[in-house]
Amino acid sequence: MSNIAHDHAEEYIRSLIKEPNDLQNELRKYAEENNVPIVHKEVAQFLRVLIKSNNIKRILEVGTAIGYSSILMAEAAGSGAKIVTIERDENMYDIAIENIKKAGLEDRIEVIKGDALDVLNNIQDTFDMIFIDGAKGHYSEMLKIVTKILKKNGIVFSDNVLFRGMVCSDELLIRRKITIVKRMRKYLKELSESNIFETVILPVGDGVALSTKIKEE
Ligand SMILES: C[S@@+](CC[C@H](N)C(=O)[O-])C[C@H]1O[C@@H](n2cnc3c(N)ncnc32)[C@H](O)[C@@H]1O
Q1: Domain span at residue 168?
Q2: Which pLDDT score is estimated for 73?
Q3: How many domains does the chain have?
Q4: What is the mean pLDDT of residues 26-52?
Q5: Tens digit of pLDDT for each residue in 158-199?
Q6: Is the CB of 118 under 6 A from ligand 1?
Q7: Ligand 1 mean position to 204 CA, how many Å?
Q8: CATH assignment of the domain containing 112
Q9: What pLDDT, on a 0 to 100 scale, did the predictor assign at position 217?
Q10: DSSP class of residue 4?
Q11: Per the domain annotation, does 1 fall within a domain?
């Protein structure tokens, strides 16, 4: 399992979460069968509650994969929502476009093909929430860019920040992941010490960091 929460707790919590429709079910199954990493079930549910309870409408996502989280966020945000999502993998991009069409959400979701570090610099709009779920070794660089386009009191939601527990404990560390883990630790330290963001790190899914922008730079 995740090496973060106890297996029995994770299994129990997941057993209570039902995908809200057939397409979300189908996409989760596809992801499992094809080893596509998508948000854990409890992180998906966390996003739904967060978006609905804060009336979040404008969301920027880094890492579309097959479009599972873009679709769930667009559905949770409801009418008037705008999701801009970035994906660099050509195959994933094509699958996401197809799935977004199937969901009938082309008007709410814009998928941009490219590397996030290039694309983010050219985005002028502002957002209520930024969901960082791609380019695990580059969260810190991305944060610097997205801080400018996040509204005051907006949220940065960073996924996989505890990275299978390796970020918390060297005993779990796999040698080839050392760089990502070091960078993630640096990112979490920056967020925790920032005077622009207030952050909570939670052992949900693969670890999430929730940061709200408390002042302009
Ligand atoms: C964890 S998956 C995203 C899952 C998706 N958010 C979901 O839950 O349905 C990460 C995705 O980020 C993409 N990615 C990784 N580095 C990237 C980068 N530098 N720019 C854009 N996309 C990137 C990968 O190709 C992969 O599809």
Answers
A1: 7-213
A2: 98
A3: 1
A4: 98
A5: 999 999 999 999 999 999 999 999 999 999 999 999 999 999
A6: no
A7: 19
A8: 3.40.50.150
A9: 80
A10: S
A11: no
